[in-house]
Every structure is written in structure tokens, then in C-alpha cells.
Amino acid sequence: MNRGNRVFLSCVYWSFVLYVFVPLFLMILMGFKDSKFIGFPIRSWTLDWYTGVFADAEVLSTLGYSITIAVLSTLISILVGTWIAVLLEGRRFLGRAAMFGLTILPALVPGIISAIAFRIYARLLGIEPGMGAIIWAHAVHNVPFVGLVVMARLSTLPKSQIEAARDLGADPIVAFVRITLPYLIPAILGASIFCLLLSFDDFVRSFFLGGYDPTLPVLIFAKLRSGMSPEINAIATVALVLTAAIGIWAERFTRRMNKDVNS
After folding, report:
1. Cα–Cα distance between 124 and 1 in angstroms, integer?
2. In percent, how much of the chain has pLDDT > 70?
3. How far is residue 154's CA from residue 173's CA, in Å, rounded to a whole number?
4. Which of 259, 253, 237, 258 has the alpha carbon at shortest distance from 24?
5. Backbone torsions φ then ψ of 33, nearest 5 degrees
6. What angle do CA 73, 133, 113 make, to 5 degrees?
């Protein structure tokens, strides 16, 4: 690659970085403004908006509600997605392609269409809007991501290890628990963190299927309807820092787990 191409790619990269991070930096900055209105110049600074987030019972309860939904939906999607991945990977049977297509379909449907479909289906099944309906919708949406990640990891598992376990007398369940499952743990952990963040940040499905208790994205949207304020910036910044911290920790932990499994 010549110097001109490197300079061009470098400019594209840094333009993308600025495009993504400058608005985030401004959002965080506005949370320190000692005024109820968003805009420049910032004449004085305060931490009141951030301390107010942790003193607001509504925000804290909504945060706990969102985390509970994210954890429960992630557990369901991990169980179902891993089971489907193990069923599909390395096997050839009638209807496999159709089953694989139906598995990844929820990830391909636009969010608004998916939310409308879930709302109609929930009414047909008699499921009331609320936590249960949101967990169900989030879990179905997250299953494809778990399946794809676990299938990718499963495709690299040496078949000789399974064959050796079977030759030593292990039945399929024991071979899975002792050989396959430990090998899949890094992929399962990575997929679970990804699903956790997807569920926590999901707005459309939570909005359509939620009851009287809003999730954090829905609460932020409700506050936005009365106009922008540093309070909204502070809430969004706390959510951003939380998700970023979880993502960075998960990435490092997954790398460490991959090294331990491969060593």
C-alpha cells in the first residue's frame, strides 16, 4: 500500500472516530452545565445533575428494572441459542436450512416491524404488556446472535476430542458437559454480554410491549418529550458509562478465557 492510500484511509478512520465520539463528548459535557437549557457557552459548571441521577428514586428503580429484564432475557436467549447452535452445527438433516433461516430471522426484521408483530402476537396469546412481554421479545430477538456466535466457536472444536471421549466410554451428554461446554464458555460469555447490552439499550420493543413501568431508554424518551435538559444528558451519560464498562470488561475477560482454553 502506497503512502497516498495510507493517508486517505487514515483520514477516513479519524473522520469516523470524530463523527462517533464528538457528539458523545458534547453530551457528557452538557451534563455539567449549571443551567436548565442545552447550549453554548457554558458559563458555570456543576455536578448537581449527576448527583441528582443517583438521588432520583425513579431513575434508580428504572435502572434496576432494565437490568433485571436484560439479565433474564439474556439467560433465556443463551439457553435457547446454545441449544439451537449445538443442534445445527456439524449435522445434516432434512429442514436444517429452514431451521437455520428461522433462527436468524428475528435479527433481520426491522425493529419497528418486530415490535408491532410482538405486540399483536402478545394480544393473541393473552400476554399483558409489562416485564414478561419485554423479556419474551428481547429473548427472541437475541437468540440469533447467540446461535451465530456459538456456532462459529463450535465449528473450531477439534472432532478428535469428542471421538476420544466417546472411545473412553462417555455418552453424548457426558461428552458435551466435559468437552464441548468448557470449550464454548468464552463464546457463551461473549454472546451473553452482547445480548445484555442489546436488551438494556433496546427502545422499540420495550416501548411497544411495556406496561406502566418504563425501561431506562423509554424513560429517557419520555423526558425528551418535554425538551432537552442537562438532566437527560446526565442520565444518558451514566447509562453510557455503565454499558461501556461492561463491554470493556467482557472483551478483556473473553480474551483471557480464550487464552486459558487454548493453552
Report:
1. 59
2. 95
3. 16
4. 237
5. -75, 130
6. 95
Cell numbers representing residue 95 in the block: 429442514
Rounded CA-CA distance 149/151 in Å is: 6
How confident is the model at residue 1, as a pLDDT? 58
Burial of residue 129, with CB atoms counted within 10 A of its CB: 0-12 exposed, 13-18 middle, 19 or more buried: middle
The values of phi and psi at residue 45, to 5°, are -120, 150
Contact 261, 77 (CB under 8 A): no
Chain length of the chain:
263
Q: How far apart are CA 127 and CA 189, in angstroms?
A: 30
Q: Which amino acid is at 33?
A: K
Helix locations, the chain, DSSP H: 3-30, 48-55, 57-88, 96-108, 111-125, 131-154, 159-167, 172-175, 181-201, 204-209, 216-224, 230-262
- State in Å, rounded, how far the first CA of the chain is from the last one: 35
Position 79 scores a pLDDT of 93
Taking only the tens place, the pLDDT of each residue in 205-251 is 999 998 888 898 888 888 887 777 788 888 888 888 888 887 788 77
Write the CB contacts of 24 (distance below 8 Å, at least 6 apart in sequence): 240
Residues paired with residue 45 on neighbouring β-strands, in sequence order: 33
